[in-house]
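Incident log, structure service

09:12 report received: a user says their structure output differs between two submissions of the same chain.
09:20 pulled the input from the user's history:
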Amino acid sequence: MKTHVLLILLTLVVAGLLSCGSVSSRVDETSAVLPETEAAVDPAKLQTAVFAGGCFWGVEAVFEHTRGVADARSGFAGGSAKSATYDDVSSGSTGHAEAVEVRYDPEKVSYEQLLEIFFKVIHNPTELNRQGPDVGPQYRSAIFFVDEGQKKAAEAYIAKLTAAKAYKDPIVTQVAPLDKFYEAEAYHQDYARKNPKDPYIVYHDLPKIEDLKKEFPALYVKK
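09:34 re-ran on a clean worker, output below:
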């Protein structure tokens, strides 16, 4: 049975169907399951972080399963265009990257812990302008900082990974100021939760959630 499933997934990859945002991937958005929630947090305590690491479906899904994260939204950031839609960003002409805005409680999860999850679980920071099957500058690795504290923390963490030779290849993650975050279309929001049987989600994103559970059990939240 496993071999049969893998053959189906391989066929979809070859056919180009396992790509972020492809029309064939938009399935069963009515099958959403309400998530378990943590104790209510004071909105005034929440801070914002923005990360880009390939298709935003998986980035959002992992952070939604992270303790202390009140909300994660898929969207776009980092370009010169004054607006952003999925189709425009997919053309590669806007300069924007698919990104996720994370609203988190620093008393429950620190920015440094979010960085660790971003690098260790969510994506490969050595791939330039791509992640897995998704290719183009819109899938680049980037950290969009909202203040100098985040900038210093991100640069220090990358320097730490580089010194430790954590990766065989150089880290290509950009560290850039957040100009504006543009929220993506409604069908992109909570996509992995609403479409757990989508082949793209099964093949690329559910394993990331399992990695979060395994690597950071104290920060994992079941939903």
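09:41 both user submissions now match this output. Likely a transient worker issue. Closing.
09:42 reviewer note: Residues 44-215 form a domain with the Peptide Methionine Sulfoxide Reductase; Chain A fold (CATH 3.30.1060.10). The radius of gyration is 17 Å.
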